[in-house]
Design brief:
Strand 7 (140-145), helix 5 (153-162) and strand 8 form a beta-alpha-beta unit. The chain has one domain (3-195): Alpha/Beta hydrolase fold, catalytic domain (Rossmann fold, 3-Layer(aba) Sandwich), CATH 3.40.50.1820. The protein contains seven helices and eight strands. The chain has helices at residues 39-44, 47-53, 76-86, 99-111, 153-162, 178-181, 183-195, and strands spanning 3-10, 13-20, 28-31, 57-61, 92-97, 115-121, 140-145, 167-171. Strands 1-2-4-3-5-6-7-8 form an eight-stranded mixed β-sheet, with helices on both faces. 33% of the residues lie in helices and 25% in strands. The longest helix is centred in the middle third of the chain and has 13 residues, at 99-111. It is α/β, with parallel strands linked by helices. The radius of gyration is 15 Å and the shape is globular.
């Protein structure tokens, strides 16, 4: 399955992203990335290819100022709305690991009507939104490494206990980047959830 490199210009900034799978698929999955990572990590561990082969249209982007994307002023969740509009994507599944989990949370709170589902993986700064988590009305999957030393496991419990109907999957014995450490299992969990 071919993974293509593409660019879009948003407010004068060149934004780099990868795409894979059938562009006509109604199931669009946007993959964000952690602070020390880029879109390339999703490709390198095979997650993009595996999701594409399961019938999803997958988009992994370099957030502004990361990877091959130019920096851009403003809030990341607003940029994400502009990016999805530019790609003419009305509804999508959003995957936010680590620091991008906070972006995904903010997007769900502000633009939840655009999401088919929200997938949070070892998200940081969760406690900042504790009082607003009950306002999230999006189907949500929480994936966490039990031995996460950056985003403590208590954050996973906080999300699970406050986002209505959310599902928590725990990678026992794994840490913060559990999705990159065990990509095959991650894809299985994600596919089961997205297809449900």
């Amino acid at each position: 399955m071919d993974i293509k490199e593409e660019y879009k210009t948003i407010r004068g900034a060149r934004i780099h992203y990868l795409t894979g799978g059938d562009a006509k698929s109604r199931d669009k999955v946007i993959l964000l990335h952690g602070k020390r990572y880029t879109s390339q990590d999703w490709r390198q561990v095979g997650i993009m290819e595996k999701l594409s082969m399961k019938g999803f249209h997958v988009i992994a982007l370099d957030l502004p100022g990361y990877g091959k994307s130019d920096p851009l002023e403003g809030e990341m969740e607003d940029f994400l709305l502009e990016f999805s509009d530019e790609l003419k994507i009305e509804e999508f599944h959003l995957v936010g690991p680590s620091f991008s989990g906070e972006i995904a949370l903010k997007f769900a709170l502000k633009y939840g009507h655009r999401l088919k589902s929200l997938i949070l993986v070892g998200s940081i700064n969760v406690e900042r939104y504790a009082n607003r988590l009950k306002d999230i009305n999006v189907r949500t999957l929480i994936i966490w490494g039990e031995k996460d030393d950056i985003a403590p496991y208590e954050f996973a419990r906080l999300l699970k206990n406050n986002i209505r109907g959310s599902i928590l999957y725990t990678f026992h014995e794994l840490g913060h980047a559990c999705y990159l450490e065990c990509p095959e299992r991650f894809v299985d969990i994600l596919t089961e959830f997205l297809s449900g």
